[in-house]
């Protein structure tokens, strides 16, 4: 075991303790290893967006069929989220996290080498297990590393990997696919997973199980009012986001009448603002979680509504797409932290419910957004985003101050 790991074990803070004034180098190293993990996993998750055409051509399938590799990751992840923290029992959480990255490495290699669609699908299903189980554990592990009162800042660093992967993975995947082929791009994500696993081995302290969950424990947690409100906030805000954000490009093309170049710049602004939102959301969540949730939801509502009302003007479109990105960057930090405050004694079970809520929101958002845009036009999904985000802000006002 390294000296760094020993230092972190001695400095690790329990869930009932206050956060330290300043994190040690060992603490930073451990949290950054989790950020590297989120970057590796989410890069692999979003990579197919830039690979569908060459992947479909090579495997002799349609692009629509190839797109089901994304569905496989999400659907397996939704089921795993409910079971992962039950199945790991009393295993050391460091061992579990390292094992999940080993699974991600194997899954990405299988996907890269798959001679047919079904083995590719199997590889992506393995990634779904690693991805959802990691996020189900993330809040509990971060709280143990940095202290409960600094969970927001810790999660902001971890979710920074998500924002960076969202920006980089599709474009880098497309470029590498053009240069070296789609299988090389898939293999690259296995390399990222190996690096993340090595960082975990070097930096994470031993993390004995603080709790052992059963499905009954997870379902029992849903009786708490704070958990119910936290899950509802995730479903409302993320359903709104995914119902509308998928159709931002068609909106910019049809309403703002922007060409491909300006649209790419607008989406880049969205991504950069999301990174800033990670940092802002973490600090606000630790200071006042209720206010943080109100601000996150209100910013998204304002951005979406402004695009509907005045998005025909290029400057307005650029500005409010960027504001939406800021709100979206705050969401993955603020929403899990908000949910965890209702279950400080059962963070792993709450993590399972958090992942399920996100998966439900993504699924509903995709289905409803597609129906709305087909039947009511390009502005309708954004109107739905504004309404659901405003409802989330009102819901946040019902929560206790904190």
Explain what you see.
By secondary structure, the protein is an all-alpha fold. Helix content is 81%, strand content 0%. It has 17 helices and no strands. It has helices at 3-11, 25-46, 52-59, 63-66, 68-87, 93-113, 117-146, 151-180, 182-203, 215-221, 225-245, 248-254, 260-287, 289-310, 314-340, 347-376, 380-397. Helix 5 crosses helix 7 (117-146). It starts with a helix and ends in a 5-residue tail after the last helix. Residues 1-21 have low confidence and may be disordered.
Helix content: over 70%
- What's the average pLDDT? 85
Specify the oligomeric state: single chain
Radius of gyration: 20 Å
User: H/E series, N to C?
Assistant: HHHHHHHHHHHHHHHHH
Number of strands: 0
Question: Could you say which overall geometry the principal axes of the C-alpha atoms support?
Answer: globular
Count of helix runs: 17
Structural class: mainly alpha
Beta-strand share of residues:
under 5%
Spans of at least 5 consecutive residues with low confidence: 1-21
């Amino acid at each position: 075991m390294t000296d760094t790991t020993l230092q972190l074990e001695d400095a690790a803070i329990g869930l009932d303790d206050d956060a330290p004034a300043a994190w040690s180098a060992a603490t930073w190293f451990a949290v950054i290893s989790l950020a590297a993990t989120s970057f590796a996993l989410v890069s692999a998750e979003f990579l197919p967006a830039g690979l569908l055409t060459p992947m479909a051509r090579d495997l002799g399938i349609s692009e629509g069929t190839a797109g089901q590799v994304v569905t496989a990751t999400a659907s397996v992840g939704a089921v795993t989220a409910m079971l992962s923290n039950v199945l790991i029992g009393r295993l050391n959480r460091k061992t579990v996290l390292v094992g999940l990255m080993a699974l991600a490495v194997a899954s990405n290699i299988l996907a890269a080498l798959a001679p047919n669609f079904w083995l590719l699908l199997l590889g992506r299903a393995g990634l779904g297990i690693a991805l959802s189980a990691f996020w189900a554990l993330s809040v509990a592990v971060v709280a143990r590393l940095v202290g409960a009162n600094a969970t927001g800042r810790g999660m902001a660093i971890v979710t920074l990997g998500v924002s960076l992967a969202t920006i980089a993975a599709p474009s880098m995947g497309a470029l590498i696919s053009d240069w070296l082929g789609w299988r090389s791009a898939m293999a690259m994500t296995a390399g990222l997973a190996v690096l993340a696993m090595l960082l975990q081995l070097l930096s994470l302290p031993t993390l004995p199980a603080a709790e052992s969950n059963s499905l009954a424990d997870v379902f029992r947690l849903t009786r708490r009012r704070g958990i119910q409100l936290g899950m509802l906030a995730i479903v409302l805000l993320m359903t709104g986001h995914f119902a509308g954000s998928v159709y931002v490009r068609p909106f910019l093309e049809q309403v703002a009448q922007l060409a491909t170049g300006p649209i790419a710049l607008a989406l880049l602004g969205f991504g950069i603002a999301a990174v800033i939102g990670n940092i802002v959301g973490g600090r606000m969540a630790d200071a006042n979680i209720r206010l943080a949730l109100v601000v996150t939801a209100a910013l998204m509502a304002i951005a979406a509504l402004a695009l509907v009302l005045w998005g025909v003007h290029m400057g307005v479109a650029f500005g409010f797409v960027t504001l939406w990105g800021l709100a979206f960057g705050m969401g993955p930090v603020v929403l899990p932290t908000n949910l965890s405050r209702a279950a400080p004694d059962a963070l792993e079970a709450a993590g399972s419910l958090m992942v399920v809520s996100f998966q439900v929101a993504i699924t509903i958002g995709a289905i409803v957004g597609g129906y709305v845009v087909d039947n009511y036009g390009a502005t309708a999904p954004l109107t739905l985003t504004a309404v659901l985000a405003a409802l989330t802000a009102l819901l946040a006002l019902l929560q206790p101050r904190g």
